[in-house]
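Protein details
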Amino acid sequence: MWQIDDLKQVLESAVGSQQQPLKEDSVEEGKKSTVGGWFMGCLSIAAGLSVLSLVGLFIFWLGWVNYVENYQLGYKFDTRTGETTVLDRTGYFVTPPFLVKIHTIDLRPMQVCISSNARVLNCKLVQFNKDGVELFISWHGRNDYEGPGSNNGSNLDDILEAYAYEGTGRSYPFLTVLRELKTADLETASAVPNLLTPPAAAAPVPVAVPQENSVPQ
């Protein structure tokens, strides 16, 4: 007969042989779960950094980046010193928000007219002269001065029209009159037909169609 100690050894060896594969499987599963968790963590960090980069770039674009068109005169105002400086080029400018402000003035020629009872009496082709920008800003303040048809800033054509038709004969360094079209020229221009418009087609002339003679039966 076996002793009790021998029976315990046999049972322990049998149980140990069954538990050994279970331990190896749990170790492999633990390794796989560790690798998967590490990959998902890296992916989450990369996605978070990408979102933060896009948000930061958008905030930087709105707050720091300014753009001056090729037909505009740009000038900046430094709130720390109160100094106004005319920009010597167009394009993109990076400035600190709330401290430096960039404004623009439209340099394109524009037509201003005086009319009465729906009739144009006089028209002038005027343009802003950048040589008088400092005087203009001192009189009208800092702002974006755009041409006709723009919804941003002040209407520059209305301001230049007031100076162009002031009537005192005084010249202003920020105003250049390129051409003046008076009443006689307007009447002549209105009397000349538009050569680009083709003449109206003549009404068709009816043509009598002879009827066939009936044959007597």
Remarks:
- The CA atoms of residues 146 and 193 lie 34 Å apart.
